[in-house]
Design goal:
single chain, 567 residues, alpha/beta, Calcium-transporting ATPase, cytoplasmic transduction domain A, Rossmann fold, Calcium-transporting ATPase, cytoplasmic domain N, nine-stranded mixed beta sheet, eight-stranded mixed beta sheet, 37% helix
Length: 567
């Protein structure tokens, strides 16, 4: 489930000008707390000091990349309880603890039990309708000596009338049958009545990472020597250059042992996967290269570097990876697609910076890779610029199809994500969400707006970004207050409040956090299963309508069919 706060965790707090270790649950608003690498943030904090501080907030906001924190103007100064400190250290003042924190709100809502399944029994009021049949039965009784057929006939009529008046009960039986059918497809419904609720949905809210997109980052494009290219497109015409790029992808990371690759951050995994897809594995590279130097990534310097001894030619080679602006200042030359080395000039710098801006405009992550060779075991004084990588969260295969079909059925699609505004807008445009290119509300904007204004804007804004978990829940409730029936699809702890608040919460059987599963009413394998659930509801509706028509016809035939009473 990721980093989380449990009873018994300790926090380093400042009490009477001394640092003391106290139980995290004893923290109160106004306390000063010290945090460092490896800590789980014990309360919601406002930073007072920060040095090289980065945290993992994926479980709380859905942001897949590490989030840098600081105290400078416009910096992100809030630390959320449950975040994992990846690098650096800092000091913060407690602004919320326990259930008042974002994580506490999630725990509180997720722990509330779902409403139990209610079986719809026949209501007593419906028996009063049976008295309407008594006068007709008395009239029929007079002409006939044998009253047995009359009593049997009117007993059947009474039963049919009760069935007509209790159509919801019949529908419930059909829903239970459909629930069992869905279970065979590994689609779990908390209770059968969910099918009735999902039939009324007119707004579908989606988290982004893990729902509309995969959790993994992938290489979308490479920019090398003034052209867009890829290893397998033929644009890179020099095999040595191709091999150099792929080697950098497999080796340039902070992990000293390849056995620990499963713990690599998403960015490193993306580059290593790209190398494997193009024919170079980590094992192959390690057979030729032995690590001799390591400079871990630093948030202030914004790059990392590592050095290796090449067993084939005996010369050390160094790779650097990180912020393109930083690496460009470290380089004096660049590599062309034909393998030539040329000095950095104004023309190349203008072209590469223009390309960086274009890559970043759609919310993609852009990093640079450079290399250097030396005759001695010491980092080079300058590097040679290799390429830019454009990395993105790619859409799941089924995403566009599912959202398009929902739109065709008159259902509105909305994105609720803790990710960046640019990324959310790009995904909104790619999926064809209404007004995605025009409007977006961010968590910070919502904090400064009255809820009435957020509610008004929610009628035409369909992309909400950088949201806190509680803000996702607020937006779901605002939709409901405006008369909408809302479904929420999410897979993380950060989605639990919205999943619980929605009329129908939908999560995934395999890839969701335990808290998301607990809050959801429907568990599916992939997004296309949500369409199957909706089709099951329509099937129940059709079957219930057909049964009602048949019962009505039988009732009328028996009631007015005089041939039955000539026996």
């Amino acid at each position: 489930m990721g980093a989380y706060f449990v009873k018994g965790d300790m926090a380093a707090a400042v009490r009477k000008e001394r640092v003391v270790n106290i139980a995290a649950e004893e923290l109160r608003q106004g306390d000063l707390v010290l945090i460092q690498t490896g800590d789980i943030v014990p309360a919601d904090l406002k930073l007072l000091e920060a040095s090289d501080l980065e945290v993992d907030e994926f479980e709380l906001t859905g942001e897949i990349m590490p989030v840098r924190k600081g105290v400078q103007p416009e910096a992100n100064i809030l630390l959320l309880q449950g975040s994992n400190v990846l690098r650096g250290h800092g000091k913060g003042v407690v602004i919320a603890s326990g259930e008042a924190t974002e994580y506490g709100k999630i725990l509180k809502q997720a722990s509330q039990p779902n409403k139990a399944e209610e079986i719809r029994f026949v209501k007593k009021a419906h028996f009063a309708l049976l008295f309407l049949l008594v006068p007709a039965m008395l009239v029929r009784l007079k002409p006939y000596g044998d009253h047995t057929p009359i009593f049997i006939t009117y007993g059947i009529l009474a039963l049919l009338l009760l069935l007509l008046q209790n159509g919801e009960w019949l529908k419930f039986i059909l829903m239970r049958r459909q629930r069992k059918q869905l279970l065979k497809r590994n689609i779990f419904l908390r209770h059968a009545a969910v099918l009735d609720e999902i039939g009324e949905i007119d707004v579908f809210c989606f988290d982004k990472t893990g729902v509309l997109t995969s959790r993994d980052i992938k290489v979308k494009d490479i920019y090398l020597g003034g052209v867009d290219s890829s290893i397998d497109s033929g644009a890179i015409r020099d095999q040595e250059t191709s091999k150099l790029i792929l080697t950098g992808c497999t080796l340039c990371h902070d992990l000293a042992y390849h056995e620990t690759m499963a713990r690599a951050n998403p960015l490193d995994r993306a580059l290593m996967s790209y190398a494997e897809e193009n024919g170079m594995t980590i094992e192959q590279s390690l057979r030729q290269y032995q690590r001799i130097y390591q400079k871990p990534f630093n948030s202030e310097e914004r790059y990392m570097a590592c050095g290796f001894n090449d067993s084939l030619n005996g010369k050390p080679i160094y790779f650097a990876k990180g912020d393109p602006d930083v690496l460009l200042k470290m380089c004096r030359r660049y590599v062309t697609p034909t393998g030539k080395r040329r000095p950095l000039d104004f023309s190349f710098l203008s072209a590469v910076r223009s390309r960086m801006a274009a890559m970043s405009d759609d919310g993609s992550v852009v990093i640079a890779l450079a290399y250097g060779e030396t005759a001695i075991v010491t980092p080079p004084a300058s590097y040679t610029f290799l390429c830019l990588f454009q990395l993105e969260n790619s859409l799941k295969v089924e995403t566009k199809k599912v959202l398009r079909q929902l739109s065709e059925e008159g259902i509105r699609n909305v994105i609720l994500t803790g990710d960046r505004k640019e990324t959310a807008l790009r995904i909104g445009e790619e999926t064809g969400i209404e007004n995605a290119a025009k409007f977006c509300l961010t968590g910070r904007s919502i904090e400064r707006m009255p809820l009435s204004e957020v509610s008004r804007q929610s009628e035409y804004v369909s992309v909400f970004a950088t949201l806190l978990p509680s803000q996702k829940g607020v937006i779901v409730r605002l939709f409901q207050q405006r008369g909408h029936r809302v479904a929420m699809v999410g897979d993380g702890t950060n989605d639990a409040i919205a999943l619980k608040s929605a009329d129908v919460g939908i999560s995934f059987i395999e890839r969701s956090s335990p808290m998301a599963k607990r809050a959801a009413k429907v568990l599916i394998n992939d997004l296309t299963d949500s369409l199957r659930v909706m089709e099951a509801e329509r099937r129940v509706h059709r079957q219930a309508g057909l049964i009602a028509v048949c019962i009505t016809l039988i009732f009328l035939v028996i009631l007015f069919g005089s041939d039955l009473f000539t026996l």
